[in-house]
Every structure is written in C-alpha cells, then in structure tokens.
Amino acid sequence: MMITVLVFLPLLMAAIAGLGGRVIGHNAAKALTTGGLFVSAALAWVTFVGFWLNGAEATTVPVLDWIESGRLSVAWALKVDTLTAVMLVVVTSVSALVHLYSWGYMAEDPSQSRFFAYLSLFTFAMLMLVTADNLVQMFFGWEGVGLASYLLIGFWYTKPSANAAAIKAFVVNRVGDFGFSLGIFATFMVFGTVSIDAILAAVPQHSGQTFSFLGGQVDVMTCLCLLLFVGACGKSAQLGLHTWLPDAMEGPTPVSALIHAATMVTAGVFMVCRLSPMFEASPTAQAVVCVLGACTALFAATVGMVQNDIKRVIAYSTCSQLGYMFFAAGSGAYGAAMFHLFTHAFFKALLFLGAGSVIHAMHHEQDMRFYGGLRRHIPITFWMMTIGTLALTGFFFTAGYYSKDAILEAAAASHTVHGAFAFAIGAVVAALTSFYSWRLVFLTFFGKPRWAGSEHIQHAAHDDHGHRHDNAHEHAGGHAQHDDGTAGYHPHESPISMLIPLFVLGGGALFAGLIWHENFVGAEEGASFWRGSLAFNEHLMHAMHEVPAWVRWTPSIAFFVGLLSAYYYYIRHPDLPAWWSRELNGLYQFLLRKWYFDELYNAIFVKPALWFGRMFWTRGDQQTIDRFGPNGAADVVVAGAGLARRFQSGYVYSYALVMLVGLAAAAAWMMR
Amino acid sequence: MPILSIMILAPVVAALVVATLPGGGQERAGRARVVALATTLAEFGAGIWLWLNFDQSSAALQFPEQLQLFAPYFSWSLGIDGIALMLIELSVFLMPLCVLASWEAVQKRVPEYMAAFLLMESLMIGTFAARDIFLFYLFFEGGLIPMFLIIGIWGGARRIYASYKFFLYTLLGSVLMLVAMLWMVGQAGSSDIGDLSRHDFAKDAQFWLFLAFFASFAVKMPMWPVHTWLPDAHVEAPTAGSMILAGVLLKLGGYGFIRFSLPMFPDASAQLIWLVFALSMVAVVYTSLVALVQHDMKKLIAYSSVAHMAFVTGGLFALNTQGIEGAMVMMLSHGLVSGALFLCVGVIYDRLHTREIGRYGGLADTMPKYALVLLFFTMASVGLPATSGFVAEFLVLLGLYQTSTWATFVLTTGIILGAGYMLWLYARVAYGKAAGEDTRAMPDLSAREIAILAPIIIATLWMGIYPKSFQQPMKPAIAAVVARLEGRELATVPTDMTLSPALPAIESAARANTAHAEGHH
C-alpha cells in the first residue's frame, strides 16, 4: 500500500498541477507537487530503512493487468527489493529537493505550474521504472522519463536551441530504445516471459545456447545483453549515444540536476544491475560494457576540460562518471556501480544546483569566462560547490572517495584484460576529473571579476525594469563606469529555498560514503544488504580489499595531480591555458568541438535522411509511381476516349455502382 | 431482433430523410446536422448494445441473420465475430465525432454531405457484418462511393485529381478480387465466408487467389508502392472525410487480410510472407523518410499512416497470436489516433485555412489547450507506452520477431523515424514563435472541439493502459485464424526460423494459442 501511494502520489499531483494549474494558481500547484514529493520521499526513506536495518522482504504489489496475448502476460506491478529501495531514496530525495529549489529558481517564470507538473510527472515515470517487475513496465518508465525529459529540456520552447535539444534528446534515446525493444522481443522469444524474476531464474538453463539473429548464429545471452545494453547506452549517454546529454543543458538548471545528473541518466546503470545475472552469464557482454564505460569516462573527461559553459562542464562530468558506473558493472562489481550511482546523485545534484545558484546570481550568464572572484559575493554557494567538488574528485572520506575507490579497486581486482584496461583509464580519468572540477571552481570563484563584458550582466545592469530571464533582486543600473571588471554589478546570494537543498545535498556528499560503504560494497555486509537483488560477487569484494597499496593510493594521487595542475594553470598562471590552446590549436578544437561527434552524425544520419526523404518523395512517388501509374493511365484515357470529362462530371460514381451491382448479380445468376 | 440489419439500414433511411428535408438554406442545413448527429449517436448506442451482448468467449458468429436473395449464391447473410465487432465499434464511435467536426466547417450542400456520411456508415457496418462473400464485395467496394463524393464535392483545390486517383487504384484491385471470388465460389459451392474459410483450396490455386485478393487489399491498406493515392486523398478531403478515411477505410485492407487471405489461403500466406515483409519493410523506411520532408501537415500524417499500416501487415503475416492481435490493436489504435490527428489539423485549418506547417508556430503560447491535445496525440502516434499506439506496436513487433528478426529489425527503426517526423512537426507547430499576427490571433479550442477530442483521448488511454477490454472480444476469433494457420510450411526466406532453443515460431505460437482457446472451454 505504501509503495502504491509513494509511486502514484506524484502522478496525481502532476495531473492536478498540469491540468488545473491555471485554476488553482501557481502557489497551490507548487505546494501540492512539492508536498506530494516530500511525502513520497519520507515513505521512500521508511522503505529503505526497512531494507537497510530491518531486513525487509522483497515484495511485488500487483496493480492492474496490462497486455495479454498468447503466452505473453504483462501486468502493472510494483516490485520492491533492496535495489529498488536504493533507487527510491535517490529519486524521491533529489526530486523533493529540486522541487523546493525551483520555488526560488523559477520564481519569475510565467509557466511555473507547468514546470512543477513536469517535474512530478518525471518523478512518477522514474518511480515506475525502478519498481518495474517486468521488462515492459520498465520500458514504460524508460519512455516516460524520456517524455518528461523532452518536455523539460524544451521547457523554454520559444528558444530554437531548446527545441532542437529536446528533439535530439528524444530521438537519440529512441535509438537506444530501438535496441531495448529488440532486446525485449528476443528475451521473450527465448524465455517465454518478460517477468524479470522469471527471466533471471531461467538464466542458467539458457546460457551457452545459440539462436539466429539477422541471419547469423549468435550466443543467446551475449545477444540479449548487448541489445538491452544499447538501451542503457541511450539513456545513460554512453559513447556513441551521448550527444544529447550536453545539449540537454538547454533545460532549466533544476532539471539538469534532477534528470540529467542524479536520476534518469542512471537508469541504464540500474537496468544493468537489475539484470546483472544475465550479464554475468555473458563474459563478452561484460567486456563490452566495461570497455565502453571506460572509453566514455575518458572521452567525456577530455571534453570537459576545455568547455567554458559551467553547465556543460558538469554535464560532461556526469557522462564521465556514468562511464565509471558502467565499467564497475562490467567488472562484475554491481554493488560498486550502485554505490557510485548513489553517492553521485548527491554530489552531482549538489554541483548542478550550486551552478544554478551561480547562474541565478549572474543573470543567466553561463560562460565561466565571465565569472571570477565570486566567492566573496556568494560565499554559501561557494562553500557548497567546494564540498560537491571535493566529493566528486574523491577527497578523503567524502562520498566520492569511497565509491570511486571501490570502482577502481574492483576493476583492478577483477583480473581480466578489460578490467585492467578500465583501471588504467579510470586512474587517468580520476586525475582529469580533479583537474576540470577544480578548474571550474577556480574560474568561477577565484581570480578577479570578469563579468563586465557579459551581455547578460550588461542587460541586467542597464535595464531598470528587468526582463523575462531577470531574476535578480536588485539592479545596479545607472552607475558610472567601473574598472574592476564588475561593471558596477554585484551578485547576490540565492534565497533560502535554494540554499536548503544545497545544505542537505552537501551533507549527503560528505557523509553518504562514510555511512553506507560497508553495506554497498563490504564483502560481508554487502551480501546481506543486497539479498540477491543484484549479482553480488563476494569473492570480488574480498579481492578488492587485497589489492596492492599502489592501487589503493592511485585515486588519491590522481586527486592531487588534478588539483595542483588546475591550481597552477588557473590561479598561478592564468595566461597559460590560452597559450596552450593557441599552441595546440588542433587538439584544442578537437576537444572543444566534442571530438566532432555532432558534425559526424549530422553528415552521416541527419542529412542523408532528409536527402533520401526528398528523393523518395519526388523521384519515387511523383516521378515513378504516379507517372507510370495513375497519371500514365489518365493520359491513355484522355488520349483514347476523352473520358476525363466524365470523371469530373460525377456520373462515374453512379456508373461504378451500377457496374458493381450488375457484376455481382450476373455472377450469382451464372452460377445458379 | 435483426440488430445488424437495423444498424445497416437505419443510416440509409436517415440519409434519405436528410436528402429530402423540406425548407431552405440555413434551416435545412441545421436540420440535416441534427438528424445526422441523432442517427450516428443512435448507431453508437446500438454499437454499445452489441458489445455488451456479445459473448466474448466464443469464436462463433453472433447475431446471425440470413435471407436468400439469389439462391444459392447470394444472400443477405449477416453475423459478426469479435474482429468484426471491434471494427464496427470503431466506426460507430468515430461517426458522431465526424458529424460534430463538420458542424461549422462544412457550409456547402450540407444535407447531401450528411447523407453521404450516413450512407458511408451503413456501408462500413455492412462490410464488417457481411457473411456472404458477394454481399461483402458490394459493401466493400460500395463504401468507396460516398468517399469519392465527399472528396470530389467537398474537397480542396485538386479534389478531382485526388478522387480520380483514389478511384483508379481501388477499381483496379477490386476487379481482380471479384474474378477470384467467382472462381472460389464455383470451386467451393458456397458463397458463405465461413464455408470458404474452411474449404481447402489447392496449394497452387491458393497462390493465384492470394495475389488477386492481395491486389485489392494492398491498395486499400495502402501498402507501398500503391500508396500514392492516400496523401492526395487526405490532403483534398474535408476534415471529417480524412477522419473516416484514416479511421475506418484504411482498416478495410487489414480486415480483408484477416478475414480472407489468412484463413482461406493459409499455405499461400505462409509461403508469401517474404513478399509482405519486404513491402512492409520498404514502406516503413520509405514513407517515414518522406514524411520527414513534408511541408503539408496532412501529407505528413498521411505518410505516417502508410508506415503504421505497414506494422499491420507485418503483424498479420507474423502468423502468430501476438502478431495478429497486435495488428488488430494497431488498426483500432491507428483509427483513433490518426483520426484525432486529422481532427487536430482541421481545428487549426478552420482558423487559418492553410495546411502549410511553416505558417504556424508558437501555438503552445496562444492555444495551450490545443498544444496539450496535439502533444498527446503526437505521443500516441509515436507509440509512447500507456497510449494505444504502444500496445499495438509492441505486440506486432514481438510477434514478428518470432517469425523474422530482419523484418522486426527494419520495422523497429520506425519508432526512431516516427519520433523524428512527429516531434519535428510538433515543434514547428506548437513551439517557437508564431509565424504571423494571424497565427497569433487564433482562438484556443472551443467547447465543441474539446467535446470531440476528449472521447478519443479517453479511448486512447484506455486502450493503452487496459487493452484487455478491447482485446478480449477478438481473442477467440484470432485464435481460430491462428489455428487455421497452424503447421503451414513457411517460406524459406532470409528470415530465421531455426531457433535453438525454440521451435519454428508458427508452431509454438499456435500451440500456445490452442492452450489459450482451451482455457475458455
């Protein structure tokens, strides 16, 4: 019962706020959705504590029959076990805080109730995803979060870039869903069911078998896992299908924190963990997951080093951290993957919301080249962002320290080639992570103010009445010229509704690892914590604790390498980065343009699709089919008997009727 | 009570009444509208009565009627199974909405217009209820005549060309089918559809008969490459005409396949799946790409219809329970969703009198209710779970996968391309900024328009969340068709039936189905 309320309350509130927002007003809509989410979050924590401390039993609550056909039987049902409980806590907590945060962030937006309705709708879809007891319901949640993501990325729909980003997100995710769908079809053919429990129970009897796929004989488990993994890649923005995530930053910043950092993008990791016994049955699939995750981590980190938009840096960081989660899963350490998912939700949501606070203070200026010295103006945001950065870069005893260490140690301890590869890449990426994260902090909060040249700030400073995107509390218009790079504008700290979520998430970023690491990845406690909800490899967890000291120290060394080089380049010698980018312009452009993925995809998918569409339409339909078909026939008719006029007269219809009746009657008469 | 006869004849009577109404001008038009609405609502009521009194556990014909006309080969023989029932429900559900949609949009020769629609309703119900193959033929082909009139008289600028094209295509196919029917009746000695579906025609004869019927049904579907009449017909037809065309007339081809081709020529069907799959695969990719580059809203939706209909053919010729049930749900779902999409186009066409996508924009600001409804149907069209479109696509592809992974692979790309063209359409219409002052000045949905769209939204959600209500009546009839196909030798096409561990799909599916049917007895 509790789980039903937990899941459906956000849907109910979304419907009320979305359909009735104009009637009940913004404040009522905001209060209902936020209140609903806090109730759900409270219930989620009760559920989680039940699994964490009290050894609650996994349950499945049936809701309604859904699709039945032949031997296929799919029902709406809510499944809760430890894995789900972890996700419930992550989803509802971050969502509740983001709802609260949006009171301040979206305070001047004319469509607030629509925004809050979308947020709650998203939360509902995400909850359906994590409570799914079968693949089809998971797919429902999967596409549902895709819809909400589409709506929220395109929330400011008068901006062409936001619309383009929204469509891109949906369509690229559909490419992933294409794989996911085929995976479900193939799974059903092999297992005769889509129930996750039944599938996982039957994995042993099908592993090692082959079936034919697109004309070739392939290993059943490898094929199924890879198809499903394509879906995971789409949702979790892994290399190849990642291109939508940075563009998704067009959405309002609270959305980026909730959907594109803490919850939706981790759905792929959740799926792999949920189906981990299947992946365990296919070493090939595991290797693919591991290697692709490592490559994504590296790719995104390199791109993140040179971006100037504060949100894009964090977006690439998310992409990169998701790569960590996947290579943990590919190494067989599903507990470590979930652990990083859990801690990452806290510190990445914190970083995004902190960035939102900076953007809010800077009149929607997102370019870090126009920041600088902000720690004196917005000190609370500064300290919270610093905590988030410490956790992300894995400073001692913060949340990220435990989870990232666990991942790297698991990769090293897995004693496979791909594990060793992932460990090496992961260590490098840890240093890069530390570099770009501290670069962000130094560019934003240290040095001298540089925002005099920012259009957004100038706009705000000279516009006495403010404008649509203008959320500041006071204007500094009409001041004389200032030479300190501030143009007379002094940023202000965000309102309390935006700071409370930062404090709460900051607490999580500092202490989540300390509190729960034994449960998630401990060799003894882990098994009793997960209780079969994912494939928990105790042997690997033991091996993790026996890796050589240099492996254990690697992440910490990486932390300092990154921090010190960021300090050197952005505090001590702020001119050096520009010099390097000129010296190595080719490399710099390559990274700045994100390895040219967008250009490549545009050239090989988008443009040809439009070209073929036009070609089929004009050359195919008009100049071939119509020309030799009906138009050709018409020409013959016109030339032959001048019947065309009769077609226009309308008599043809009576003729046709007479003809049909006559034919049928004659036929019947003939056969008497 | 001969309920089916009453349902077929009542609209004819109403059409006569409407056509001969006294009075003049506006008054006459007003009366015609009221009579048409009352009749279609009564038909809808009768449809609900049928549904409630239908025995959902039986594949047998229900509400049978028999009246010899030209014994022994042509009789007024009616009766419905679950498949026919659900298609009749779709027709009677859409009809009152069509009348309402034309309430203000049509001002020219209103009584004749309403009469044409009533006649069409009669012929559609007749098509689905006919048990005699010649009676079916009459209704099947006759149903096009009111449609020619609707396009030819109340259509747009190029209406003559469109109706001519429509006529030419369909006539060509139907002549072949009629010849095949004559031969079949001569062979089997009966014109009863039930008898014919139990008659085992020789395998080589089946091949030619299949192709003759295929010519007719493929045009009606429409399948690539005989689809080019559809975009023109849709573009020129008035809104309600498009609704019926997409909603019901496009279902005649699919109905023909499941009623005739599959049970009467099971061996040929199994042997020729490669033909159907190939055409369906081409259709999905080809028409989706064409839809992507359209500037005319109605053309875009028309091309998307062709792609959706390819899912129907793919599902039917998967020759298993999931595929055929999915194809049936797809027909119902597409009837609702594409009907509603044409209605949505009609709503803004009535205001701005253009179908040019570039002339719109920013409707989310100026017409928020409309934008929400259009978003809903856009999502239903791309098959978002919890809408009817998902259940349909999912079952079709799930069934098809068991027969051919290649066909499934190609058809599934439709979900990517479909998202592309529909979302792009939506973005250009609803998002961004209004193209002009006249666009910005368009009023939001009226109460009448909401009253038309709301029932379709409810039905679409219902079918998406609890499709059982709609699937249950059809299951026994579909099980009978699958049983008829059981054990037929499938074509050795480049598809992959050699599954280890599974068996050839057609057998296992049929077996599951027999088990299902047994469960009912």
TrEMBL record, chain B:
Gene Ontology MF term list: NADH dehydrogenase (ubiquinone) activity; NADH dehydrogenase activity; ubiquinone binding
InterPro entries registered for this protein in UniProt: NADH4_N (IPR000260), NADH_Q_OxRdtase_chainM/4 (IPR010227), NADH_UbQ_OxRdtase (IPR003918), ND/Mrp_TM (IPR001750)
Coiled coil regions, renumbered to chain: none
Localization per record: Endomembrane system; Membrane
Designated name of the protein: NADH-quinone oxidoreductase subunit M
Family in the record: Belongs to the complex I subunit 4 family.
Organism ancestry: Bacteria, Pseudomonadati, Pseudomonadota, Alphaproteobacteria, Sphingomonadales
Domain NADH:ubiquinone oxidoreductase chain 4 N-terminal: 69-124
Residues annotated as transmembrane: 6-22, 34-54, 74-101, 113-130, 136-154, 166-185, 205-223, 235-258, 270-293, 300-319, 331-349, 370-400, 406-426, 447-466
Source organism of the structure: Sandarakinorhabdus cyanobacteriorum
GO biological process: ATP synthesis coupled electron transport; electron transport coupled proton transport
NADH:quinone oxidoreductase/Mrp antiporter transmembrane domain sequence ranges: 130-415
Pfam families with a match to the protein in the record: Oxidored_q5_N, Proton_antipo_M
Keywords carried by this UniProt record: Membrane, NAD, Translocase, Transmembrane, Transmembrane helix
Highest taxon in the source lineage: Bacteria
One cellular component (GO) term of this entry: membrane
Broad class of where this protein is predominantly found: membrane
Keyword flag Transmembrane helix: yes
Membrane topology: Multi-pass membrane protein
NCBIfam families: NDH_I_M, PRK05846.1-3, PRK05846.1-5
